[in-house]
Amino acid sequence: MPLPEHDHYSITCLCLAIEMCSVGMRAIYSISPYQESREAFGFTLDEFMFFGGNPGAAPLRGDVKRWASYITDSIIEPSIAKDVLALEDVRNPALLRRLFYLGAPYSSQEISYRKLLGQLDDRGNTATIAHYLELLAQAGMVSGLLKYDPKLLREKSSSPRLLVHDTALMTAAYGNRRAFLLEDPELKGRLVESAVGSYLVAPSSIDGFAFNWWREGSSEVDFVISDERQVVAIEVKSGRVKKTGGLTEFMLRFPHARTLVVGSAGCSLQDFLLGRVPLL
What we know:
alpha+beta; two-stranded antiparallel ribbon; about 50% helix; 4-stranded mixed sheet
């Protein structure tokens, strides 16, 4: 099977379309990416989390190496070269590219700007890393979610939790270790959390609600979405071992909030990714 031509099904284009025509995109996202992949290509839940929702790459899922090459050569590299760098004049394009390939495998994990800078082995500064993350987010590739805090100054100064906008980006960036994303419980847990987070990216852009995460000491909540009316703390039961009690602590600090546990009896992972669960 020949590789699909570069069809510019870039995630960036989808994000720009969301911003340009939010009403139109509501109709498109009435079918979730998982539902679309399941109906069009017969994806199982694990396949969707591993391969993501890019339709151009879906026919290649039987050959993971060719699939990864397509995602890298036809999605990631053109998005960086044409979309991200088109947003503004980037002084260090090589650093921005390395930031993506370092950050994508860390999806769903908190990592400080200083640690990112150290692993990139660059003499830049943390403000540059934060700015480049913002550019990657605008291009629909990877975001650095900030901690939820009603005090805006504390929120802005927090370490980000990285999140790919499509799990295909995480899988492709994992290189030869990508098979472990479905085999290792810890890594699969990160993949599940990334799938839930990436599902929230589109509606947060369309509906204009804030999208964060939260941690205070050892207490942590995977995601927090909020608007002027309400706050929802979302915990993902992903199968990996992690500390409990985050939702309880969050509710003690923010008693007006409500909670949602994805992967529970009342909210299965599949129902959530199919768009059957109300958010706000």
